[in-house]
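Translate structure to sequence.
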């Protein structure tokens, strides 16, 4: 799992962002907290797969979702609603931030046991795969607070999430202490960059 500092930091940013949005049920004409997760494909919500846009269970596939709205749905949209919203944004705009928070909602679905029993292990692996894609394809990606002035790198968070889900980070990543004694994910300089290009581009 993420350490308590990391989780607290993310929760604080998400709550601030959510407070800037409208109530979720007023944004789309339905209450997003009532959306249920239905397993479709094990690549849903994992770059570069666009399958969420063809999933009939995804109520957001025909909606435009703005930046403030996606963060409001992160905390107030329910786990399934948040997942489908972020997966939709990711399919249309592949960024490390969009991949990271899509994987967060997969993790939340798994941890809350909000998936069918037959799919629980698959959803855990989907979350791991989503966090791994942050490391593989978006290793320098960051996310910002609502002021747009404070940012944090997502590679370390993704690394910790994989460990928390009992996975093993791939691609010669390791967690080391930076100059200030803060755990930071770094990748070996010997890592073959061609492996990233094959998977991500």
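Result:
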């Amino acid at each position: 799992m993420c350490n308590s500092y990391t989780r607290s930091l993310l929760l604080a940013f998400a709550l601030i962002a959510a407070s800037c949005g409208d109530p979720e049920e007023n944004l789309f004409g339905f209450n997003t907290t009532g959306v249920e997760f239905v397993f479709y494909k094990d690549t849903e919500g994992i770059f570069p797969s666009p399958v969420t846009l063809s999933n009939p269970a995804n109520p957001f596939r025909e909606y435009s979702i703005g930046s403030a709205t996606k963060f409001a749905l992160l905390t107030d949209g329910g786990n399934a609603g948040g997942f489908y919203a972020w997966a939709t944004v990711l399919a249309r705009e592949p960024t490390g931030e969009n991949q990271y928070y899509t994987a967060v909602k997969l993790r939340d679905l798994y941890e809350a046991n909000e998936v069918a029993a037959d799919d629980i292990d698959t959803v855990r692996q989907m979350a791991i795969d989503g966090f791994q894609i942050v490391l593989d394809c978006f290793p320098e990606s960051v996310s910002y607070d609502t002021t747009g002035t404070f940012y944090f790198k997502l590679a370390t968070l993704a690394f910790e999430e994989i460990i928390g889900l009992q996975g093993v980070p791939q691609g010669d990543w390791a967690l080391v202490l930076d100059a200030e004694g803060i755990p930071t994910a770094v990748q070996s300089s010997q890592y073959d960059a061609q492996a990233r290009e094959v998977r991500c581009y």
